[in-house]
Amino acid sequence: MSRDDNISRRDFFKFLAAGSGLLLVHCGLPSPPPGTRKKDYDWNKHYWAYAIDTTKCIGCCACMRACRAENDVPPGYFRTWVERYRIDAADQVSVDAATKDDFVFEELPGNVVKAFFVPKLCNHCEKPVCNQVCPVGAAYRTRDGVILVDSEHCIGCGYCVQACPYGVRFISPRSHTADKCTFCYHRITRGLPPACVQACPKHARIFGDLEDPTCELSILLKQQRYRVLKPEMGTHPKCFYLGLDREVV
Amino acid sequence: MNFVFPNEANVTWTVMIVLYPYITGLVAGAFIVSSLYHVFGRSELKPIARFSLASAFVFLLFATLPLLIHLGHPERAFNIMITPHFSSAMAGFGYIYATYMLLVVLEIWFVMRGDFIARAKGKGPVAWLFRLILLFNLEENDATRRADHKISRFLAGLGIPLACLLHGYVGFLFGSLKANPWWSTPLMFVIFIFSAIVSGIAVLIFHYYIVSWINGWKTDHACVRSMTRYLWGFMIVAVALELLEVLSIAYKQTEEWEVLSRLIENKLFFSYVVLQLLIFSLIPFVLLGISVLFRLSRRVANALAWIASAMLLFQVLLMRWNVVIGGQLLSKSMRGFTSYFPGLWDKEGLVMAAIIFTLPFGILWLFNRAIPLFPGAAGDSG
Question: Domain total for chain A?
Fold first, then answer.
């Protein structure tokens, strides 16, 4: 065999370096989760966000039921929940959530002077601390602004669960990986609203595309005053709350 | 009314994550004691120098075991090194751990090369194994001994910042989490380093007495006395830092203190205030103070040092518990607390924790059988 037929050591290392580079480029480029999107869905053209009008929520928890049914959430864990705030005449605040299997709030006695419901879910933050702390890069943000978990890559260390200031993450007892709200990514990339939004009878949950200035959410955020949860955390949540009481954290 | 976010009903990090910083702390502390002899020339620590290096090694061997047991997918553990996400404080763990392990193994190799050569000169598979460890180079003379000494001294020096990095990094894992007011403090990594040194010195004193008692040796008085002084000094700094951290939050009276004070007064009152501070910090402080400041009979000084080191071993374990578990008892709703106590036979339960903690001592016993860690101990009756 002539020398020309052999790859020289220099060429071999060049080949190796180019191959590694391609592999790194491939690993570095995000790609939409497989099997979740319409063929013509372009994630560069959307930026999803969420709003909750707390003055409209009646605490029926249809959203929680819909989420559980749609996403097969393990019992005892929640991708979304509704909190009930009750403030009595002495300004004492009590909070609870309908976390039993029937998703019904218990009737509680008390001299309540103010009460309201606050739905909670992943805030799909612009500066997500959960992504920052994931040691293997299994937590990531899609180009259309949704925070997802690659359950094929997650090692289940629970660091993101500890880091999330909103308590929305958990380690699934089924997959043994981190789990949370995905904005029903499999639905929104097919042009459907998240299950909780579709199930809400009072239109307290509003989902929309910030890239579309004509959508209801974009207009609402221009016209209404709103707040986000724990702004001091610097996470820049994309879940906007209308009519939020100061007691809510 | 107590309210925790629904996903916080179960504590995510269990007693395994209490053990992980505890064991790495023992590694860092034991290594620093060995370096006090090898680098800083504290010759009175010579009787325990090899033992402390071997202790650091065996604890390091088992430092990752509780993590592997805890991981949801331990088979993917190497993802942390294969696809590290460097914005995460945790992503550096694999590299820091591997570098430190390499350094400790190399230092043992150079420090104990003479003993390895002695074992390699025999016959049979064990001798062949030692020849393999020595890379089949059995040459030994003044020049090789000088070279070994020089290199081991360099490695011991390099190991001090690495030991601080290894354990300071563990503290940083907690201290950098802004979501948790019980963890989020820049002091956390300094506290972890000092408490690591305390636990490392304490385990060496405690174990040295046990080994000496079993073998009928007399302990080296100068060595123990020096270690006792170091233990007292480091424990004062460690406890002072822990108290300063809480006092500064308490004095500032911020919103955080409203909930942290409830955490301390209710959920952690027994494990933190009563056990960690009042019993297992105050009593060893007094015992070691008496031992250091007063001229006592050897018997009394030994007894005080042994009791104090045993108590401080438990104090550091309590500190890890109160940090790791305590931080998770506090709900991020800032309106309530959850509860946790490990099961006995669970995968991440008390029996498993006891096994993991016992295993390094077994390996250390085997190590001592292969290479004596207290050469001439019987004669050291100073």
Answer: 1
A107 within some domain: yes
Q: What is the pLDDT of residues B284-294, one digit of tens each?
A: 999 999 999 99
ipTM: 0.92
Q: Which residue of B has its CA nearest to A139?
A: B85
What pLDDT, on the 0 to 100 scale, is given for residue B68?
97
Tens of pLDDT along A160-186?
A: 999 999 999 999 999 999 999 999 999
Question: Could you tell me whether strands A239-242 and A170-171 are parallel, antiparallel, or unpaired per DSSP bridges?
Answer: unpaired
- CATH assignment at residue A69: 3.30.70.20
What lies within 8 Å, CB to CB, of B218 at 6+ separation is B212, B380, B381, B382
- β-pairing, A139-141 vs A147-149, is antiparallel
- Domain encompassing residue A202: 48-127+178-242
**Which tokens sit at B358?**
């016992």
pLDDT (tens digit, 9 = 90+) per residue, B205-262?
999 999 999 989 889 999 999 999 999 999 999 999 999 999 999 999 998 999 999 9
Distance separating alpha carbons of residues A73 and A180, to the nearest angstrom? 9
Asked if residue A213 is part of any domain, the answer here is yes
In chain B, the residue whose alpha carbon lies closest to the alpha carbon of A74 is B7
The model's pTM: 0.90
Spell out which residues of chain B touch residue A64, defining contact as CB-CB under 8 Å. Answer: none
Q: Does any domain span residue A158?
A: no
Reported as type and span, the H/E element at residue B118 is helix B113-120
Contact between chains at B7 and A170 (C-beta distance less than 8 A): yes
| Residue A157 domain flag | no
A239 near A49, Cβ under 8 Å? yes
Q: Give the number of C-alpha atoms closer than 13 A to the C-alpha of residue A199, restricted to the C-beta side.
A: 18
Best of B1, B4, B5 to disrupt the A interface (most A CBs within 10 Å) is: B5
A168, A20 Cβ separation under 8 angstroms:
no
Count A/B contacts: CB-CB distance under 8 Å: 128
